[in-house]
Structure formats: structure tokens, C-alpha cells
């Protein structure tokens, strides 16, 4: 693991192969990376970046994660979306942008990377706030999602609001708290929609200082109690950023969790 786990956020990587647009706004785009090697076409992987939904964080900080997933033989799309602190960001566009992107990207990727993208709904890999967005899409449009790997997801928005994670991040996203906007929380909060209707693996580091692991433990327990196909991978020596770092000690377990989404059961 690097001396500073945040180094992964700015580590240089190869440029994406192509960038496509799924809408008219400048942030309704995705960077595409072709799979490594010359193997058969495989399911698209959509990476949803975190950053507590804020404008100062964009898809580029998941470049090492995307490169690592492409090395496993999958085409990868790093979806961008409008974020809080910029025009149009927040409720509802932040959520609906990702939903639209996930629905459109399999077609766009197949056109841009001919012969490399297999038919079928994509696998979603979301980190932190991106984990929340991946879970939101899976709940809202389950037929559009082949499975979710949620890395330290903000899986309980009401609890995240109570804890004031990242100094008001949830309030900025939804325009206030659950008392002020119960209908928004009812639609956007994964915890209010358990079980997630698609196969889901949640991975979380026990040393996480950004999103408490207790949130994932409770979310997965509730999902399993409700009959959901969901599992929790706890990483006792990992913090928040090692989950998206192919150079971290956690990466072999992350790749194993990713592969488990594709296993027949």
C-alpha cells in the first residue's frame, strides 16, 4: 500500500481509448477502455466514481481502478455525471445521469469498441458515493444491471445525513434532511429499498475513516434478512482508498469479489 493511500486519486495512467457522450451536457460522458489482450467479448463494466457527489471529484481519480479492471479482460466505462456545486448537479440530475448512462453505455461501448463488448446488462463497480449511485441504479432499473460491486458505499443516506459525512454531503445532494424531503430519501436511499434486486457484493475496509464500516454491515444484514443475493467482504487492514487501488494489498480480494458476481449459482 502506498505511504499515502490517497495517492491513487492522482496516479498517472494511460489515457482512455475513447470518450463517448450519453447526453447533451458536457458531464454526460464516459471514458472507455478496451479489455487487455485479445480474448472474447465480455460484459461491460461501468465504474461509478465517488467523492461525496461533489464537483471537485471527477471520474479521473478512478483511472487506476479502471485500468485494473480492464486488465482482467473486461471493457470498462468510467461514467461521469453532474455533481453538487455545479449547475444542474444534485437532486435529481446526479442520480438520473448515472441511471441514463448505465442504460446507454452498453450500446455506445459496443459501437466504439467493436467485437469487445458482449451483450447483456453491465456490471457496476461503484466506490463510496459511487457505490450509492450504483445501488440506486440497481434498485431503480434492475433489468439494466448485471451485478454490483459496491466499494465502501454510502448505503444509508439518512444515517449519512445524521453522521454529517463530509460536512453536509447528503444535504447538498438531496437539498436537506429526511424530515424536509422524505420523498427524495424514499427514492434515493438504498437502505429504504432492501433487498437490492440484483446480485451484490459489498466490500469495506475496517479502517475506513470516510464511510463507517458499520453502515455496510447493517445494510448487508438487512438485505440478507430480506432474501437478497448480497454478501459482505470485510477487509480488516484496509482503509477507504485501498479498495480502488490495484497496487494495494486488498486488490486480490477485490478482484475475487468482482469475479464472484459472474459465477453461476
From TrEMBL:
**InterPro entries attached to this UniProt entry:** AB_hydrolase_fold (IPR029058), BD-FAE-like_dom (IPR049492), GDXG_lipolytic_enzyme (IPR050300)
Q: From the Swiss-Prot or TrEMBL record, what is one GO molecular function term?
A: hydrolase activity
What's the name of the protein? Alpha/beta hydrolase family protein
Which stretches of sequence are listed as region Disordered? 1-24
Limits of the BD-FAE-like domain: 31-220
Q: Which Gene3D superfamilies match?
A: alpha/beta hydrolase
Record-linked PANTHER family: AB HYDROLASE SUPERFAMILY PROTEIN C4A8.06C, KYNURENINE FORMAMIDASE
Alphabetized UniProt keyword annotations: Hydrolase
